[in-house]
Amino acid sequence: MMEISTKSRTLLKVIFLGDSGVGKTSLMNQYVYKKFSEQYKATIGADFVTKELQIDDKVVTLQIWDTAGQERFQSLGAAFYRGADCCILIYDVNVQKSFESLQNWHEEFIKQADPINPETFPFIVIGNKIDMEGEHGRAVSERKAREWCASRENIPYFETSAKLNYNIDEAFLCIANLALDNQGQQQT
Questions:
Q1: Can you give the pTM of this predicted structure?
Q2: 185: buried, middle or exposed (CB in 10 Å: 19+, 13-18, 0-12)?
Q3: In this prediction, what percent of the chain has a pLDDT beyond 70?
Q4: Do the Cβ atoms of 21 and 53 come closer than 8 Å?
Q5: pLDDT for position 9
Q6: Domain presence at residue 125
Q7: Looking at residue 57, which CATH number applies to its domain?
């Protein structure tokens, strides 16, 4: 007799957005493969990987889409964003411009993905590279980032280091839970 699993399986499509060089690929590689590389190679278009995790009695497969941060690839957005269950906005805490771009990434995602209810669509914000205090110190304070998130439907905020594997699992668990809650609300 074959044993039939009683666990339910769920696939969640996660989109990474942020300027080029903020560490999207490094975060993804650290989370999925527990690897970090100092070699930087810009993502062309988009790439995706999957990772399974257990949440309560559910087996959740995260399909993580790492998108190019360059302006010239933004036209590809609609195809990649379609069907997304959640979105992670990423900036570099040492680069003010990457923080200022979050609003554009947020608006672009809403426009391109066209979620049923944009106000409740699951987003989180990650301030990455907290291990690298620039020569002038941090460009974006944690308080400033938290205020930005609070003013946008209380988006959860995490500070991470892909290099040190700091706070990454917590951020992904948060986004998975938010996406599952949102899926449940869409179905009722």
A1: 0.89
A2: exposed
A3: 84
A4: no
A5: 79
A6: yes
A7: 3.40.50.300
Res 3 pLDDT > 60: no
Confidence band, pLDDT 50/70/90 cuts, at residue 41? low
Please give the order of strands across the beta sheet that includes 123-128. Answer: 46-55, 58-67, 8-17, 86-92, 123-128, 157-159
Residues 98/92, Cβ–Cβ less than 8 Å: yes
In-domain check, residue 2: no
The count of domains in the chain is 1
On whether residue 1 sits in a domain, the answer given is no
Decide if 103 is inside a domain. yes
pLDDT of residue 43: 63
Q: What is the structure's pLDDT at 62?
A: 95
Domain that holds residue 97: 8-187
Residue 180 has pLDDT above 90, yes or no: yes
As a whole number of angstroms, the distance between CA 124 and CA 64 comes to: 14
CA–CA dist 51, 76 (Å, integer): 24
Token digits for 172? 């992904």
